[in-house]
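Hi R.,

As promised, here are both runs. First protein below:
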Amino acid sequence: MASALAADPGIGRVIGVDTVPPSSLTRDGGALLGRTEFVRIDLRTPDIAQVISAEDVDTVVHMSLVSEPAKSRSAMMEHNVIGTMQLLAACQRSAMVRRVVVRSTTAVYGSSPHAPAVFTEDTEPVDVPHSGYAKDAIEIEGYVRGFARRRSDVVTSTLRFANLMGPRVDSPLTRYFSQPVLPTVFGFDPRLQFVHEDDVVEVMCRMAVEDRPGVFNVSGDGVLLLSQCVRRSGRTGLPVPSPAFGVLGMLARTTGLVDFSPEQLALMSHGRVVDTTRLAATLAWRPKFTTAAAFDDFLQSRGTGADRTAALVDWLSGLATRR
């Protein structure tokens, strides 16, 4: 995203803030980042306010939402929640900031057997997530709403992304689909949605240069059943009872292979589907990748590729269902 923004001649400066330099900066001298300037700052400290004030920043894009703990759950929470609080406090004190864009997640809706078939932006979650990544995202969105009320002169946009998928995405879900055997919850075949990393960048860039206030769901069109994902991946599915799936998740976290949090386990049981009509109408935009295409691109990047036979079976299954 920094590279895309830096390539826009209409943008004066692009300043990237993080605790460590991005790998592209250290690997090739920053060629991938273009004219992006990097500043090493921990968002949990008030130092971010100095950058926003000194550099006359007018647009802030907050993308640093960590989905799994690198060291501990408390450190993850501090990074997500405390870091966002410090950033929004700095924006509130700035007279120059006029646009704030925040990355969130559809995990705020939770995954529950009592949930509606499709979530809109105005749907209240039936079972509010009480732990991990989803809980952090809910708290973050609460602080964003408070900021928007206090600074009504600032255009505030919140983007709830479905699970990211693509060649460069490294997440608990992509690592799950990279395993040779994929445990599934016996008796459940959840509906899943993915958004391709390229579409994520495009939407974020649009929001960074346009005044589009509000909350928006972002996902590729269509859905995939978990069973369809397993067939497309060419892996072996292993249906196990729900308690055993939870035990496997804990063992996977212990070994460091896959960090499956409780909300991820719920997703693999009940799934989650969101409506993206509001985003399409506001931006007059559709994602380049459907959910299936995003997943296939991820598989091909791992040397697996989409299974054409499985795709045909999926199509025939859908045809039989419609009849």
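And here is the second one, sequence first, then its structure tokens:
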Amino acid sequence: MTPKPSQQTPHQPGQPGSEHVPGTDPIGGQAARMFDAGMGRRGRGGKKRRGDVNAVVPEAEFRSYYGRAVLKPPVWTHEIAYYLFAGGLAAGCSMLAAVADVRGDAGARRALRVTSLGAVGASAYFLIADLGRPERFYNMLRVAKVTSPMSVGTYILSVFGPLSGVAAVAELGALLPRRGVWGLVRRVARPAGSAAGVGAALTGPLLATYTAVLFADTAVPSWHEPYRELPFVFGGSALAAGSGAALLLAPTAQTGPASRLAAIGATVELAAAHRMETAHGLVSEPFHLGRPGTFLKAARALTAAGAVGAVLGRRSRVVSAVAGASLLAGSFLTRMAVFEAGVASTKDPKYVVVPQRERREARQRAS
């Protein structure tokens, strides 16, 4: 006689029909499977193994809802990377132009001041292009907020631009007549250009490094974690770019300071970039992968080659020009690598979740 459904007993393991069917799990079956999986057992020394018999789900992994990223990628486009390079080039050229002015190297001073003006103009163009509408830049000037790197940077750019412009326009004074009203303008142009050049040189380091603070002040993992190294990377890159412009454009006899400053800027950039790539664990990984890794490797090679060429070949016009072009290309690729690495670090949740767990576990161990 076939027993009624209420009187049937569960199938024993190994018997036909003992396969697990959702909704028909016998009493204690789930706990038995959890125990077989290692939950709730005790290992040597009486310590519990990983897991708990009362748990119903395994430990969560770093995943996001429906495959979405934990952080939204930056809304900035590649215009911001171009803006970083152009601003750094303008800052580096202004600093070297002040050195050339003190030394009396008129050819180098003229080339660097004109390059600085062109670069800061391009920098403003790329910034406004990323903002979308020119009036947004004007609206940023209506508010002064010391705690905002973007607000401070807007004022730095607004101060540096006119100073760089006055210094560059002053170079036209040598073309004016020596007598009459234009002669007076010619006599005033030289000291006015020197004063504006000094102001631009003093503002240049701020223009070159404030963007590093702007990047580090975000939640983007590969920008936020290396906040100590980014100012040195950007500052050294700006000095190397300015030196590269001098080696490429100035007369060979006037490139001595540029050769020495190229070596200093390249050393600072390479050392800070190496620490940025290696000192932050998982967050440094995007600097080695894909496009950022390719850009950074090429930037490292070009910057090192440009520095060596600047020091060893400064008496050769051809070698100096090639070294200058290498330094400029290396500076550009460095900015592109940093930008691309930050964007890549927002697309994989592990760069957000894993460091957070490591910090939490470190605090627990410390307490």
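A quick note on the second one: The mean pLDDT is 83. Let me know what you think.

Best,
J.
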